Amino acid sequence: MSRGGSMRGKGWGGVGAMAALIGVLALAVALLLPLAREHQAVEKVAETTQAAAETCKNPEQQTLRPSAADGPTIAEIKARTGAKRKLIVGVDQNSYRWGYRNPNNEDAVLEGFDIDLVHEIAGNILGDRDAVQFRAIPTNERINAIQKGEVDMVVRTMTINCTRIGQVAFSAPYFRTGQQVLAPKAAREITGFDKSLAGKKVCVAAGSIAQTALDANRQGATPLVVPNQLDCLVRLQLGEADAIITDGALAASQAAQDPTVELKGKAFTTEFYGVAMKLDANDLVSRVNQVLAQYRSGGWQASYTKWLSPTMGSDSAPYLPANPVYLRTS
């Protein structure tokens, strides 16, 4: 009996252990399966983004035709009630003459070239130019903010390129620019984006086109990567960087803020700013393009004259994109 009882005890112990093991395995599967699926989803997005970049030509033309029609995205925006009935827009609050808080204004409200465009879009969609909730977003968080639905759009000197059009949807271009070097006037040895940068510490914003350009051709320089473009100007002023690479339009504004720095050489790329939105927000993209088509006829020039002509000159022709082409169909 004792032997049989002992064997039964061992048998039940084995079954119990097996059951416990199965339970542990089931729990592991339950915990790991969502992670595996998430990983597969991330890989799929990465593959889609890479494919878009490899097959992309003229990314500024990969947008939808203008339309005044409402769709699900616009309907959702309009359905907001009370104080929340606003367009939520990611912007910069530190880019002089583009999106910044003017300390000379009583309320230090956001203003600038990009901010004018935001008000124009809000007026078209919600019938109130001031129905906007601005959210200050760092350079390296622009795409995340759109994909996570934290904002309806980003209007923040954001360059349209082949990688980004696989991550977010862009409007037609609203500004033409290019990458340039900004450095102290006293640094006469720096002549532009060339070998004169060898041995220099060059500051770029994380996730920016400038970072991509410098990674592709460092010109012998050492990159200094910071979260925000304005951080580069501060680093330059503190002597922690020798030069900055950024959009020429932004560089001109920064040079206006600090008379000890200047643009070095000519722009070495051609780029276009666009309004960025979620990939599936087709109705919103088309509506923004409708706004831009109307804005080109007068509002654009008035905003340029007010905000950018003091730093970029009275001739706006080099910065107004050609008539847009709408190649995207869905």
In angstroms, what separates the terminal alpha carbons?
78 Å
* Beta-strand residue fraction: 15-25%
Q: Within the largest sheet, what's the order of strands?
A: 11-10-12-9-13
Largest sheet: 5 strands, mixed
> In CATH terms, what is the fold-level topology of the largest domain?
D-Maltodextrin-Binding Protein, domain 2
* CATH homology superfamily of the largest domain: Periplasmic binding protein-like II
**Helix run count:** 9
| Poorly predicted runs | 1-12, 24-51
Specify the helix fraction band.
40-55%
In the CATH scheme, the class of the largest domain would be: Alpha Beta
CATH architecture annotation of the largest domain = 3-Layer(aba) Sandwich
Number of domains: 2
Tell me, briefly, the overall form. Answer: globular
- Average pLDDT, to the nearest integer? 88
Order of helices and strands: HHEEEEHEHEEEEEHEHEHEEEHH
Structural class: alpha/beta
> How large, in whole angstroms, is the Cα Rg?
26 Å
User: Care to count the β-strands?
Assistant: 15
Structure in words:
The chain has about 325 residues and is of the alpha/beta class. It has two domains: about 60-175 and about 270-320, D-Maltodextrin-Binding Protein, domain 2 (3-Layer(aba) Sandwich); about 180-265, Periplasmic binding protein-like II (D-Maltodextrin-Binding Protein, domain 2, 3-Layer(aba) Sandwich). It has nine helices and 15 strands. The protein has helices spanning about 1-55, 70-80, 115-125, 140-145, 210-215, 230-235, 250-255, 280-295, 300-310; strands spanning about 85-90, 95, 100, 110, 130-135, 155, 170, 175, 180-185, 200-205, 220-225, 245, 260-265, 270-275, 275. The longest helix is centred in the first third of the chain and has 54 residues, at about 1-55. The termini are far apart. About 40% of the residues are buried.
